[in-house]
Amino acid sequence: MLAGASSIALAVMLVSLSTRPVQADAALSRTAAATSAASVTSATPSSLAPQTSAAAQRTEKLSGVASWYGGVFNGRLTASGERFNKYAMTACHPTLPFGTIVRVVNLENNKSVVVRITDRGYLYDGRILDLSYGAARKIAMIKPGLAKVKLEVISMNETPGRK
């Protein structure tokens, strides 16, 4: 009986200690967010307010190295459920929602292509994007295989479903 009471007392003490900083941080964050939101909305029109949706926060890396894929994957199902066409203007990205439209600019020759995100997969060596063969050909990166690129999200698909 004594062991059970001391276990309960210890558990209550641990729970109360672990939740105090979280509650204080949450209260501080809400106050800071309300203050900054008030200053943003009063200083700028609502149409110019920054996007803060969950999908918009997934665009953390907008430049880096891209590669391309095709060949053996042609005709196979992509992670989004559609068939991969190596000549289509599509790409594989680790976090952007399927259906998102992205402009990809090759920083070495300034050529660009607009692609739709249709696939997921492991991207080697920290690469940020895998382009279809057709899209890679448009920005002249077939022979080198890799290119330094910049991504510009044109439209974000935020519909629920496969991500």
| Count of β-strands | 6
What low-confidence regions span 5 or more consecutive residues with pLDDT below 50?
9-59
The fraction of residues in strands falls at 15-25%
CATH class of the largest domain: Mainly Beta
N/C terminus separation: 51 Å
Please work out how many helical segments DSSP would assign.
Answer: 2
The percent range for helix content is 25-40%
Largest sheet: 6 strands, mixed, barrel
What is the H level of CATH, i.e. the homologous superfamily of the largest domain?
Answer: RlpA-like domain
Order of helices and strands: HEEEEEHE
Using only C-alpha atoms, the radius of gyration works out to: 23 Å
Mean pLDDT, rounded to whole units? 73
Domain tally: 2
Widest β-sheet, arrangement of strands = 1-5-2-4-3-6
Provide a descriptive summary of the structure in words.
The protein is of the alpha/beta class and 163 residues long. It has two domains: 2-48; 56-155, Barwin-like endoglucanases. 29% of the residues lie in helices and 23% in strands. The chain is built from two helices and six strands, in the order αβββββαβ. The protein has helices at residues 2-43, 133-138; strands spanning 63-69, 90-92, 101-106, 112-119, 129-132, 146-155. Strands 1-5-2-4-3-6 form a six-stranded mixed β-barrel. Mean pLDDT is 73; it is low at 9-59.
